[in-house]
User: Fold this.
Amino acid sequence: GKMSDDAIRLGSVSRRYGTGEGAVTALAEVSLAFARGTFTAVMGPSGSGKSTLLQCAAGLDRPTSGSVVVGGTELTELGETRLTLLRRDRIGFVFQAFNLLPSLTAEQNVALPLRLAGRRPARARVREVLEQVGLGERARHRPTEMSGGQQQRVALA
Assistant:
């Protein structure tokens, strides 16, 4: 399809860690496209490069060579600041393990990453993102009081 049909496109992406004889190739010339509005399962044995692939595709890790295009923007040409803004605005991960802290409420779990980054999130904004995932009324609930799907939506928020 057209370039714009792809949410993410990787072109000959390689990622090597280390140099010389101790170098490890995590990705070797990987080219693929993820069409907009589709779901893709990335499967393979431990150590096969799944996490590296996703991190390069999301701009969390820079490929050693090759190109990564997200929504028409070539990530490999961006400086750190622009890359951070793009990640914040356009990229989200849903993890298999939701990484919610059981002792914290939904709103405290949502606020935690911001607090760790030294920011003070406004309670209204935290409520707003919980509303966006349909969990406004669950803001004060702990993970054990929520279904797996609800926990996943808190992680997404």
